[in-house]
Amino acid sequence: MSAKQSHDFDLFVIGAGSGGVRASRIASAHGAKVAVAEEFRVGGTCVIRGCVPKKLLVYGAHFAEDLNDAAMFGWDVPVKRFDWPVLRDNVLAEVTRLESAYTDTLSNHEVTIFHERATVAGPNMVRLASGKIVTAGKILIATGARPALPEIAGVEHSITSNEVFLLESLPKRIVIVGGGYIANEFAGIFLEFGSQVTLVNRSDVMLRHYDQQIVDRLIQISVKKGIDFRFNALVDRIDKKDGRLQVSMTGCDDIVADAVLFATGRVPNVEELGLDGAGVALNDKGAIKVDADNRSSIDSIFAVGDVTDRVQLTPVAIREGQAFADTFFGNLPTRVDYDCIPSAVFSHPPLASVGMTEGQARNTLGSVKTYSSDFRAMKNVLAGRNERSLYKIVVDGATDEIVGIHMIGPDSPEILQAAAIAVKAKLKKSDFDATIALHPTMAEELVLMR
Ligand code: NDP
Predict the structure, then answer these.
(1) Is the domain defined by 349-447 classed in CATH 3.30.390.30?
(2) Which of 38, 48, 55, 177 sees the fewest Cβ atoms within 10 Å?
(3) Which residue has the least CA distance to atom 36 on ligand 1?
(4) Is the pLDDT of residue 4 over 60?
(5) For ligand 1, which residues put their CB under 6 angstroms from it?
(6) 249-263 pLDDT per residue, tens
């Protein structure tokens, strides 16, 4: 397929993040003439300032525990010293390498890249920052989301997940506001690096979409490790005095810190994109409203990923980008199945989940059975690390089908990815029982619960 004579491109994608890159390269592979515009760096939040650099920091942070535990395994580690700039710069270099790999992928698929901002100028028209006007048969908006910041005095003294990877030095004391993914992941990271961490949450519920028994275990372990939780607390204002931040609070005493990180959700990037003028409707959360085929209120304009605020996860944006490209350029009508999406929080230790929580199952199904295993990983026992894992299986009492698996413990996201296949395939508890344990592993607990 080539661009109809009336258009410069078959597809113009705004935003080269996870969803935009996937849609671009697949549409191109299907024969479409594709262009993508990116005002910042190719790769988007996940690659540049999200999942990838975060996971590398999680690995870096975990050495603190491994080096402590090493002694019981016979290793003498005489001096333990952490150098933040070394890790930071190595992570940033890896991000740059990946950015270039993503750029190469687009170029190899003959996708034209415009390294500038693009806005929608009409149903089939895009205006680039340079002033150039480009036309396309379809426009895909994949501009993602950005950290939400509350409107409080002194908020400009705080940082978000955008800046956290670039810190000049490690804060001795950090206040992290929020009780979601980013707050819990960075609370663990900074604590392991040696910072004094206070996590401030506006209610007494954290990670509210996760099974609360698993979340309670995370809180127990985190408190023991030294994270200072302030529940039912709000930050009112931040004042900078002599290089320190005075954080004024409601619900708890004021705190003095060297850094304040807001991790209070993300908002879709829809501003100044020309959406109003083009007639693209937003939903009540300010995200682009799309149907099951990712089509907006304008026939030729589509959107995928965080800008639609359906599920703010990279693999979901990738699936949406793939489905869009297959449907409209590959003659393979595809819709994303949002059921049973596995997810994880890379805290210390991590937690992972798929399917219904016990509460959701009780609200949805008549009878529910739960099975759990509360154990100390073998490695933790020898290390003298008093940190217990908790695995929980939620079963439909009427059918014996496993409807949810929830875990906290070392490597639980790695284990859960495989277990999620079983939940997606609607396997039964008896299928797990019939599977012989792989010993000695932590994962064997999944087939040993009776
Ligand atoms: P989350 O939605 O996970 O958590 C937001 C937290 O901030 C909640 O505890 C929320 O409280 C609280 N909050 C919201 N508004 C305010 C406010 N005005 N004042 C105080 N607290 C507030 O968002 P994150 O920012 O942690 O992450 C954004 C998204 O990015 C996630 O939802 C997730 O989709 C994605 N992500 C995924 C990761 C992964 O897969 N491992 C890692 C990092 C991010 P309440 O619960 O009361 O609303």
Answers:
(1) yes
(2) 55
(3) 181
(4) no
(5) 150, 177-183, 185, 201-203, 208, 263-266, 312-313, 343-346
(6) 999 999 999 999 999
